[in-house]
Amino acid sequence: MSQSEHGDGGHGIGAVVAALVANLLIAIAKLVGAILSGSSAMLAESLHSAADSGNQALLLFGNSRSNRAPDANHPFGYGQELYFWSLIVAIILFGLGGGFSVYEGIRHIRHPAELGDPTLNYIILAFAFVVELAALWYALRALEQRHPDTPFWRAVRTSKDPRIFVPIGEDAAALAGVVVAFLGIFFAHRLEMPLLDGAASLVIGAILAGVAVFLAVETRALLIGEAMAPHRRARIEEITMSDDAVVGVNELATMFLGPEQVLLAMDVRFRSDLTMDALTEAVDRIEERIRREDPRISRIFLEAEGLTES
């Protein structure tokens, strides 16, 4: 297993910081454009970027909390706290970002307002598109370094690091929102139909809600104890069975304790003729091989069962 796949999370933190800086700059620029032009879509986009900035700050906070050392009350550490704060991010994105965008869209459709000169909005949206694209590229690069030979969609779905898949989801939604806001403003002026600006805000809200649901589903699976991928579990069993002292594996269970921490519990049948010293050596040997194969496996609980080989 490559080191890039099981790194220390530095690339994930970099993706979060890049997204935070980008969203802060863009939120300010969009707010200025919304105030000067009266555009509902620009206001929705401004709140979207502001919410994203808060979300990145929450991810950084969650990352800091998750790095605390194990103690008596949390013997397996605090790695899963990062998943909790990622779920909060999804809730904020759905409720604050998506909800307010839909509200603004409905309000402007019911009471269309005359739009001002769109030139400034176009400039701001172009700036936002470039910055968001750069932030998304950085997050995708972090994903590729973690999963170098995995197709994109599979890498996103199998990634267990919210510091990577959350920025990717938010940055992708932000890019889509910028495009929708541009189209809404452009056609509202072109066709002299201000309600199209409100319609664009509705679409932006739907995009945010969709991404939020995806992030919530992914994070929920990790919060309730998601196992490693089947091919990883099969590889662990293969390594265990390759040891001469092993007869079989009765049960194998894994659970993510954090992006780079996995708990492994196995019920292993050993040869009945092994001495206690030989059994101890075999257990140590198997654990070393498993950790060398996948350094994320930080906790191993192995129950040894001695049976006559059939």
Q: Distance between termini?
A: 34 Å
Rg of Cα set: 25 Å
Q: How many distinct helices?
A: 9
Q: What spatial form do the alpha-carbon principal axes imply?
A: elongated
Helix and strand composition category: mainly alpha
Q: How much strand content do the residues show?
A: 5-15%
- Topology, number of strands: 3
The major β-sheet equals: 3 strands, mixed
Overall pLDDT: 85
Helix content: 55-70%
Order of strands across the main sheet: 1-2-3
Structure in words:
The chain is mainly α. The chain is 67% helix and 11% strand. The protein has 9 helices and 3 strands. The protein has helices at 10-37, 40-66, 81-110, 119-146, 152-158, 162-190, 195-223, 230-241, 276-293; strands at residues 246-258, 261-271, 297-307. It has a 3-stranded mixed sheet. Strand 1 (246-258) and strand 2 form a beta hairpin. Helix 1 (10-37) runs antiparallel to helix 2 (40-66) and helix 4 packs antiparallel against helix 6. The chain is elongated. The two termini are 34 Å apart. 42% of the residues are buried.
Set out the fold topology.
Layout: H1 10-37, H2 40-66, H3 81-110, H4 119-146, H5 152-158, H6 162-190, H7 195-223, H8 230-241, E1 246-258, E2 261-271, H9 276-293, E3 297-307
Parallel strand pairs: 2-3
Antiparallel strand pairs: 1-2
List keywords for this structure.
mainly alpha, 3-stranded mixed β-sheet, 310 residues, 9 helices, disordered N terminus
In short:
With 310 residues, the protein is mainly α. It has helices spanning 10-37, 40-66, 81-110, 119-146, 152-158, 162-190, 195-223, 230-241, 276-293, and strands at 246-258, 261-271, 297-307.
